Amino acid sequence: MSKNPFGNMGNLLKQAQAMQEKLGKIQEEAAAKTVQASAGGGMVTVTANGGMQITKVEIEPEVLKSEDPDMLQDLLVAATNEALRKAKDLMSEEVKGLTGGLGIPGM
Fold this sequence. Notes:
Layout: H1 9-31, E1 34-39, E2 44-49, E3 54-59, H2 61-65, H3 69-99
Antiparallel strand pairs: 1-2, 2-3
Helix pairs in contact: 1-3
């Protein structure tokens, strides 16, 4: 009797589907968590969620009074990039438990 080369394919597909469902749940839970980053000593603070969305931007009134739009733009870019980096790290930590620490591209 010859062995079916695709014998465990059904099990693999079930495992992949279960992993996909868990990943969806992790992504949903991470989207509810937030991280913050600031620039200029707290002059600009940006909040992002685990879904890589900016949810809040806070600007100290003093920055608006400075009449220096270039500085404000730089602070916004710096704080936003840092908040998104932290959100990515948050998601990576959440997914790490699912993948057992394997470096799966795109996760």
